[in-house]
Write a structure and sequence with these properties.
This protein has 3 helices and 6 strands. The chain is of the alpha+beta class. Strands 1-2-3-6-5-4 form a 6-stranded mixed β-sheet, covered by helices on one side. Strand 2 and strand 3 form a beta hairpin. The termini are far apart.
C-alpha cells in the first residue's frame, strides 16, 4: 500500500496543485483514464471546501490531502481542521456522513452542502466524517489491474 501525503496552506491557488498531484497519483495507481477528470474535479471541490472553512474561520493549520493506493482501490482523503460543533457534516443523498460517534449530522451551510452534493455526483464511494479534531472527506475509486500479458503464438 503506497501513500502520498500533501499539506498546503489554506490558499485558493494551492487547490490547482492538489488537483494535479491527485490526478498524477491516481493515474500511476491504475485509476481508469476516463475517470481522471472526475478525480480532479472531486479533489478540487473537496480542497476548495477545506480552504474555505479554514479561511472563514481563521484556521491557520494546513489542509491535508492523503492519497492511498490499495490493492484494488485508490482513495483520497481531504482533511480540514474545522472542529465539529454538531453541524459540520452534511446528510447529502449518496454520501455516508458520520460524526465521531457515528451519527449523521445535519449541515447549516448551503454552500457546504452544495459542494458535498457535487462530490457525491462525481464519486460513487464517498464518506464524510467529522470530529472535534476536524473533518475528512474520503473518496474511493476502483483501480484496474495493471497486468501485461504477452500473446503466445503456436
Amino acid at each position: 500500500m503506497a501513500t502520498v501525503e500533501l499539506r498546503f496552506s489554506a490558499q485558493p491557488e494551492h487547490v490547482r496543485t492538489a488537483r494535479l498531484v491527485a490526478a498524477a497519483v491516481a493515474r500511476r495507481s491504475g485509476v481508469d483514464e476516463a475517470v481522471l477528470d472526475e478525480v480532479r474535479l472531486a479533489v478540487g471541490e473537496a480542497c476548495s471546501r477545506a480552504v474555505g472553512l479554514h479561511r472563514s474561520n481563521g484556521i491557520v493549520a494546513p489542509v491535508r490531502v492523503v492519497l492511498t493506493e490499495e490493492e484494488k482501490a485508490f482513495s483520497i482523503e481531504v482533511g480540514d481542521e474545522m472542529p465539529s460543533t454538531g453541524e459540520a457534516a452534511s446528510a447529502v443523498p449518496g454520501v455516508r456522513s458520520t460524526s465521531a460517534g457515528g451519527d449523521v449530522e445535519p449541515s447549516g451551510d448551503g454552500e457546504d452542502e452544495m459542494g458535498l452534493a457535487v462530490i457525491s455526483g462525481l464519486v460513487d464511494d464517498v464518506e464524510v466524517m467529522s470530529s472535534a479534531a476536524g473533518g475528512v472527506i474520503r473518496m474511493t475509486w476502483p483501480t484496474t489491474l495493471a497486468t501485461t500479458s504477452a500473446t503466445v503464438l503456436p
